[in-house]
Amino acid sequence: MNVLTAQAEPVFTARGLTKVYGAGDTAVHALRGVDLDIVRGEFVVLLGASGSGKSTLLNILGGLDTATSGSACWTHAGELHELIGADDAELTRYRREHVGFVFQFYNLIPSLTARENVALVTDLADDPMKPEDALALVGLGERMNHFVAQLSGGEQQRVAIARAIAKNPAVLLCDEPTGALDCATGVMVLQAIEHVNRELGTTTVVITHNAPIAEMADRVLRLADGRIVETRANPHKVAAASLNW
Amino acid sequence: MKAIHIKLWRDLTRLRAQVATIALVVAIGVAGFVGMFSVHESLKGSRDAFYRDNRLAEVFASVKRAPVHLRERLAALPGVAEVKLDVVFDAQVDLPGVGVFAIGFEAAPRAPAGASASAFSMLAA
User: Fold this and answer.
1) Are the Cβ atoms of B6 and A112 closer than 8 angstroms?
2) Which is it for strands A219-224 and A227-233: parallel, antiparallel or unpaired?
3) To 10 degrees, the CA torsion angle through A210, A138, A100, A226?
């Protein structure tokens, strides 16, 4: 289903995306011909049960995985770049320069402080913001010199978000960012993501199996069995602060 | 200092006992290799000095026939300083009161007609 509006500039365009793991009787069809358009600045939630293909789709869009067939293009500076068939060097450059990724279990470096974890990315990026500014954006300006073990789960996830946005990415991809958190902490994390999407205009895609979170999105894509089975626009999206699950 | 280098320094500091142990094992291994290499070089030098001081041959070859007329051809080979046409063989001699012992015999080739008896010398082993 294609809900691309006439005025919006597409960031991602996917056609017939298919991903098969393994072969023969043990083959797993994670994606079965997905068509997708995501416009610049949009907040999209990929909703679906475990095994529906959400993470596979996100990993392909983020350059962490390749599709078995189909095409996935992303647009930058008016140029179309094909992700399927790109070699390792191209995908690495794409991930490093244009993609911010937030994982369910943070993946922070324990031996570094919050500021140093963000600096890992800013040391590599071409045009990053300061680590201190990224941490301030997620409300952790006062905790930047604390080590990871000295931070709560929600604070660690916000450090991960700061690390993802510090490079000023074109897209922010979040794979179950609140999956390991309770409701109150999860709301804080979603507020940080919402703030980044609104203030920086970063195209944001969030994966979740938690239906209430979909209410804060511009558009919700529901996946089941490797296909997009429903696309729903949210004309009156809800603020993250009012979510509850 | 970049964050990745900070991480490296802190990880090495946290694992300093393990790092020191590994460094010590590597150092012992290197020292052992250097020691064996030095002994080998020293033994080679001693062998070469002994050979040189005692004018021992560098090449040994045994033949079934060594005609005398080959003397000039052997002397003409590059690097040959001297040609001695002697026959050397080992034998056991049983002397009364002494018992059996092994010695090496060196016999000069037959002298031309009219000359005195050829030299016959013994080299005690």
Assistant:
1) yes
2) antiparallel
3) 0
Task: Kindly compute the dihedral angle of the four CA atoms of residues B95, B97, B103, B108, in this order, to the nearest 10 degrees.
Answer: -40
ipTM exceeding cut-off 0.90 for this assembly: no
> What mean pLDDT is predicted for residues A145-151?
96
Considering chain B, what is the average pLDDT of its residues? Answer: 81
The confidence score (pLDDT) of residue B86 equals: 74
Please give the model's pTM, rounded to 2 decimal places: 0.72
Facing residue for A123 by CB, picked from B2, B10, B14: B2
Residue of A nearest to B8 (CA): A111
If you measure CA to CA, which chain A residue comes closest to B12?
Answer: A111
A178 touches chain B (CB under 8 A): no
